[in-house]
Write a structure and sequence with these properties.
This protein is mostly helical. It has 5 helices and no strands.
Length: about 140
């Protein structure tokens, strides 16, 4: 139903995440001139590493603590947040910011399009852990 192959999403996640990691690391050079930008680089690095890591392995409890990584709306807002954090001097960081903002806007639009299917790594591996699932079925009796 979706015209976008799943490999395209994987390529975009790895490339955008890698660019954000590199931009975060390049922001570490500002430790002596702008300490606030250095700290923002630490935050963006902490938010960017899981974007790449989740393409290869999904830890069991990450959905409970960081479910925004598993939806188009969450990833779009995350990309825009990282872009705003990384917007400092330097051509590479500004180029990365522009790419992250465009990717974030595209993902937010994808969230509202019904014919775009989510990638496989966005889907919960164990559906019994969903938020609306009750511990007991209707037939079970609570003692």
């Amino acid at each position: 139903m979706s015209s976008i192959p799943p490999e395209a999403f994987k390529f975009v996640h790895i490339s955008i995440g890698s660019l954000a990691i590199l931009a975060s690391l390049s922001q570490f050079l500002l430790i002596f001139t702008n300490f606030n930008a250095f700290l923002l680089g630490l935050y963006s690095l902490a938010l960017s590493i899981p974007v790449v890591y989740l393409e290869f392995k999904i830890p069991p409890n990450i959905y409970n603590y960081a479910s925004f990584y598993f939806s188009f709306l969450g990833r779009g807002c995350l990309n825009i947040l990282i872009a705003l954090i990384l917007y400092h001097q330097g051509f590479f960081r500004i180029l990365t910011t522009i790419l992250l903002i465009f990717n974030g806007i595209a993902y937010i639009i994808f969230h509202f399009l019904p014919f775009i299917n989510e990638p496989e790594n966005f889907k919960l591996a164990n559906p019994s852990l969903s938020l609306n699932d009750n511990e007991f079925d209707d037939d079970d009796e609570v003692v």
